[in-house]
Amino acid sequence: MTTQITAPETPSAPAFGAKASGLFGIPAPVGRALAAGGGVLTVAATFLAWTWTAEFPGDLTVYGYPGGLQVLVLIGGVLTTLFALASHGVRGVRRIAPAGADAAVKLAALGTFATAWYTVLAISVELGGLVNLEPGGWIVAVTSLAALVGALALPFERPEPDPVDPDSTAWEKTAHRLAHGWQTVKAAFASGSPRPLRELPSWAEILVVVAILALGLTVFTYGIGTSYDELFIGFLLLAGFGFAALNKAGLVAHATQITGRHQNVTLCGAFVAAALFPFTQTDDQYATLGVYILIFATVALGLNIVVGLAGLLDLGYVAFLGVGAYAASLVSGSPSSPFGVHFPFWAAVLIGAVASLVFGVLIGAPTLRLRGDYLAIVTLGFGEIFRITANNLDGTSGPDLTNGSNGISSIPNLDILGFDFGAPHSVGGFTIGRFANYFFLMLVVTAVVVLVFRRSGNSRIGRAWVAIREDETAALAMGINGFRVKLIAFAVGACLAGLAGTVQAHVTYTVTPEQYLFAGAIPPNSAFLLAAVVLGGMGTIAGPLIGAALLFLIPNKLQFLGDYQLFAFGVALILLMRFRPEGLIPNRRRRLEFHDAADAPAALGRTGA
């Protein structure tokens, strides 16, 4: 008997028609030449003056030396040119686009265009009109637009429209056309699967890992050190589109493969790169942001055990950070403490971590039999109860324990083995200030939390957490003690949050109830912590760390928006969740959950046509 075997269709491949064309009716060779030429001319335009006065930040009046936003446009122009040459098939350059260069050049050109035109418009608005533009400003506006038009003219296979129900209303037909238009735009920016990455010698792959970490440190240092609002917005535009272009080109996938082969080297290198951050700063200003980002990221990683691994929705997690901070502050020699004791740091750390663990068990034991929304409501109530209780323990409404709304103040700086964390120190000719000292200490705490997360996630209990998250009923049927497993996750997460809280108490000098809200403009709070886990990628190590860094840094840099700060921030989160719902750095399981198949076709109409 002969069995005929046919190759199945790839589920992720959309149903495309035979016609391939670009968004603009320009021949493909002309479009590629226009994209490459526009990129080269954009790079050249950055060496010209864009305005005649130095009143605009960054001093864009100098010829031959790009400054401020010109540097960002220069980088975007270089990326656009390289990807355009790769699209041409130029030998040696094709390797930078293992998944194809067409989608990458479109995104790179779009990012360059957005940054250049934002700069031109900002000059015109802030200085009072287009008359303030020098020839360089006009040239970069035209060349970046030409590069974008050429890139969008590159051909792609257009999806066939779904049949229209004859009985549809005018609004339904309009919605159908809009949906098809959106599918066409998505197809225009779609890319293929990257070419297989051949295995390099170990030393070469380690050098690639070092280069990736160096690039990450450079980008983070530049972003956190942007000195004015216009530069930070330009940085966000270029960084967002640039990362998307690298991802579409397949470079991110190859980088992930290489770092996955050397996980221990990547992890150690990431901590070394983070430790170098204070040495890249000229003062303690940005080390302050660094230590607060580490506190926020460490707590988010602890929450990732509860939410990302065990699948328990906790809306009051910031309370465990507060328990650790209050417990440590009460025994660290603060004059506001009713106990009047000053324990060494290691004892305060143990007290803070154990206190949070005990509270985690006490709260989790009666509530973890609940599921879903009911568990979320109970944890939200616990977070508010903690804050209100801490506010009332002022000697009037209750026992004098937390000093009420004034909190525990004047918490002394740490002194570990004679090293005063409150005094500046000189290391290799660099002056390390107070916040840089705490940055290094918090880096050690973060390393401990990462180690606990990694070891527990790969252990038997970690696999039980994942089983409970995926299907609790099936896990119980397989013999897993669901209540015990969830209680362990709750206790471990609470303990790690308390560990970070002990350092936070000394960094902030004062611990007050208003620091531990469910939601607010300033992280850490429960809403921002949960957003950091979901935004970064649930169940991963790097995801919550990067998500927390972005969620702390971006609001801090958007303060010039005033009352519209949270609005703009919320819109950015909505867009990110719409276009990358699995998070910035998802694990393999979540990536497959969201991208295992192409988007389903439109629903059938009334007639079933």
Structural topology:
Blueprint: E1 16-21, H1 28-45, H2 69-88, H3 102-127, H4 135-152, E2 156-159, H5 170-188, H6 202-224, H7 229-249, H8 251-261, H9 263-276, H10 285-309, H11 318-330, H12 345-367, H13 372-392, E3 415-416, E4 419-420, E5 425-427, E6 430-432, H14 434-457, H15 460-470, H16 472-477, H17 482-508, H18 526-536, H19 542-557, H20 565-579, H21 588-595
Antiparallel strand pairs: 1-2, 3-4, 5-6
Helix pairs in contact: 1-2, 1-4, 2-3, 2-7, 3-4, 3-7, 6-9, 10-14, 10-17, 10-18, 10-19, 11-12, 11-13, 11-17, 12-17, 14-17, 15-17, 18-19
Shape: globular
Query: In angstroms, what is the radius of gyration?
Result: 27 Å
Strand proportion: under 5%
Lateral strand order in the biggest sheet: 1-2
**Tally of DSSP β-strands:** 6
Helicity range:
55-70%
**What is the number of helical segments per DSSP (H or I, 4+ residues)?**
21
By helix and strand content, what is the structural category?
mainly alpha
Provide mean pLDDT, rounded: 82
Gap between N and C termini, in Å?
Answer: 39 Å
Note the main sheet. Answer: 2 strands, antiparallel
Low-confidence stretches: 1-18, 597-609
List the secondary-structure elements in sequence, H or E.
EHHHHEHHHHHHHHHEEEEHHHHHHHH
Structure report:
By secondary structure, the chain is mainly α. Helix content is 61%, strand content 3%. It has 21 helices and six strands. A two-stranded antiparallel sheet has the order 1-2. The chain has a two-stranded antiparallel sheet with strand order 3-4. Strands 5-6 form a two-stranded antiparallel ribbon. A hairpin with a 2-residue loop joins β3 and β4. α11 runs antiparallel to α12 and α18 packs across α19. The longest helix has 27 residues. The radius of gyration is 27 Å and the shape is globular.
